[in-house]
């Protein structure tokens, strides 16, 4: 049991909490539940979770605010947001707050399960990433998720951190757009290209002619390290 991924389900709807706890348990996960952001904070302070399934609309502190607070505290636990708000703007708000994926209610349980599995697969390379990789004047810590230039911390987004972890874990080997893409995201290949270009702006002297983060035609992107 201890080797099964541990998921925290946070939702003020008691019936949905129970349904998700039962369904995810039946599919091989350990599941804890919380009815509010405050209750979730208490559990996150005392336990390490592999993933959080988090409702946005809750009384008191919203899921958005909790996500923002966790990211500001450098808590990188993967977060899958659930919301009855399905507009593109609402999805963007959720992702901008630092969530890793967004699923609109009502949803098919099977889709939720697949998204959770995809997120957990994306996290696995981070655990195998070297403690530090160096490229030029930059150092990236796979364990801490920190990018530094000449020892000075460089601000990166959650998605940029995920990209670097995946690329660092397979340094010198191309990583495909599909592996880098946000699960379920629209226009995912284009989104990956945009994120890569933004990351190049931070690590390349000439982003149009990159030395470290290069494109491999037909294969994806590769990070060249020292």
Structural description of this entry:
With 226 residues, the chain is an alpha/beta fold. It has two domains: 6-126, Response regulator (Rossmann fold); 129-223, Winged helix-like DNA-binding domain superfamily/Winged helix DNA-binding domain (Arc Repressor Mutant, subunit A). The protein contains eight helices and eleven strands. The chain has a five-stranded parallel β-sheet, with helices on both faces. A four-stranded antiparallel β-sheet has the order 6-7-8-9, covered by helices on one side. A two-stranded antiparallel ribbon has the order 10-11. A hairpin with a 2-residue loop joins strand 8 and strand 9 (152-154). The longest helix has 20 residues, at 109-128. It is elongated. The chain starts with 5 loop residues before the first strand and ends with a strand. The model has no long low-confidence stretch (mean pLDDT 85).
Features:
226 residues, alpha/beta, Rossmann fold, Arc Repressor Mutant, subunit A, five-stranded parallel beta sheet, 11 strands, elongated
Secondary-structure map:
Elements (H helix, E strand, L loop, with lengths): L5 E5 L3 H13 L3 E5 L2 H10 L4 E5 L7 H10 L6 E5 L4 H9 L4 E4 L4 H20 L4 E3 L2 E4 L4 E4 L2 E3 L3 H12 L7 H4 L7 H16 L9 E4 L3 E4 L3
Parallel strand pairs: 1-2, 1-3, 3-4, 4-5
Antiparallel strand pairs: 6-7, 7-8, 8-9, 10-11
